[in-house]
Amino acid sequence: MSTAAPATAFDTRTRILNLAEELLLARGFNAFSYQHIAKELGVKPAAIHYHYPSKEELGAAIIQRQQRRLRKWRDLPRVTELTPPQQLEALLDVYRHRAARGPQVCLFGALAADFLTLPAVMQQELRTFSGELTHWLAGVLAAGRADGSLRFIGHPFSKAAQVLTTLVGSLQVARVHGEEQFHYILRQLRTELLPPSAA
Amino acid sequence: MSTAAPATAFDTRTRILNLAEELLLARGFNAFSYQHIAKELGVKPAAIHYHYPSKEELGAAIIQRQQRRLRKWRDLPRVTELTPPQQLEALLDVYRHRAARGPQVCLFGALAADFLTLPAVMQQELRTFSGELTHWLAGVLAAGRADGSLRFIGHPFSKAAQVLTTLVGSLQVARVHGEEQFHYILRQLRTELLPPSAA
DNA sequence: TTGCTTACTTACTAATAAGTAAGTACGTTT
DNA sequence: AAACGTACTTACTTATTAGTAAGTAAGCAA
To answer: Which ranges does the entry annotate as DNA-binding region (chains A, B) (predicted)?
Structure first.
């Protein structure tokens, strides 16, 4: 009856991108190959090259999609209308979700380690993506401190950089030491940022 | 006259380990090869295999050496006799040094991204190394809060995990966004941990 | 029905990877 | 002088990598 396709029925191009992203976050850019994707998808490696001629383009497409998602999510009325603490919590949820998915780190954490081996295009796109995220969080923190709903010392931009840096690291720690360790770190972050009344 | 060899005259085995470590921290475990080391050293790849039969053994040797260095440094009278804030500062100096060396992340940050592709031996050794470092820092933080020289909320172990996580991430951020960004993050860390009187 | 486009497969290349086996040059010991 | 261990090199194998070129089957358009 429904004209909507089932959730698994993405077109090949999208399925490649999904799988490549999953492999990237699980294994790093240099440790996944067109063969991995092809085998999992039940096609030949050349089929991946048809959709994404080079690995550089595939990698860039992954960053670009995350960039689009960030902008879309950030500008959603459902998100812009939240209070600063709620916006912070919504951000933390993104990382909690990754941690719960087991061995996935975030895009930044996956690419930063391999950064010097990445094509220049991907390096630049990662900088932009990460810069925009930091800028957004700095705004949230500044607003939160202004209305008394968040507490921290120092410049909002420095604090935003520090919080995001901690989140990047926390998913790597989760991979090595388990999810429990990740939650200790996040609890510490929340305890510090939320004023006692709200905790 | 002096019987001491010049600093560059390490034996091949040590030079291999030095170079492998450098390449690991710059490029990640999967993006450096026996060929890279051999070419830089002016020998053939098989010579590397003579000293370190497999890449797994080479990688494990790198972690083991860092582990030995950590224990030695931590137990040095010159270090144990420092006050907690000074011990913290000494730890930060290790990371500052890496950041200044340009594109090097820390051992944990380099291996965590590739963690799922690492041999089991290396995974276990990284866990031990990181666990010991966290344990040490937790002790420093607890002592510092007890004598009023450091301030933070929450459990010392949680705070230690968070601080180290931030340091792991900060070197990755430095690689992507430059050293300046790294110093913002470290300044934020110090400002929060050192009580106003000491800042 | 002819021709074009899409989405592939088959079959390949060239480069690089880790790892091995056999040989060699040199210094030390016996 | 003979034997041995150390520290390699040469020459190789097997596997995997990204990437390419040519062919093909199916669907749609003119």
So the answer is: 33-52
The pLDDT assigned to B30 comes to 96
Residue B195: per-residue pLDDT: 86
A residues 72..131 contacting B (CB < 8 A)? 103, 105, 108-110, 112-117, 123, 126-127, 130-131
Amino acid B102: pLDDT:
79
CB count within 10 Å of CB B180 equals 8
DSSP secondary-structure letter at B5? P
Which CATH number fits the domain B66-198, given the four candidates 1.10.3720.10, 3.40.1190.20, 3.40.1190.10, 1.10.357.10? 1.10.357.10
Q: What digits encode the pLDDT tens for the residues B69-82?
A: 999 999 999 999 99
CATH superfamily of this structure's domain A63-198: Tetracycline Repressor, domain 2 (1.10.357.10)
Q: B188 contacts in A (CB within 8 Å)?
A: 154, 158-159, 161-162
Q: Which bases in strand C are touched by protein, i.e. have an atom under 7 Å from a CB?
A: 7-11, 16-22
User: Model pTM greater than 0.90?
Assistant: yes
Q: Which residues have Cβ atoms closer than 7 angstroms to strand C?
A: A 11-13, 42-47, 50-51; B 32-36, 45-46, 49, 53-56
Residues from chain A that touch B99, judged by Cβ atoms under 8 A, are: none
Cα three-residue angle B110-A127-A132, rounded to 5 degrees: 120
Q: 3-state DSSP call for residue A101?
A: coil
The conformational region for residue B2 under phi > 0 = left, psi -120 to 50 = alpha, else beta, is beta
> Which residue has tokens 């600093």?
B7
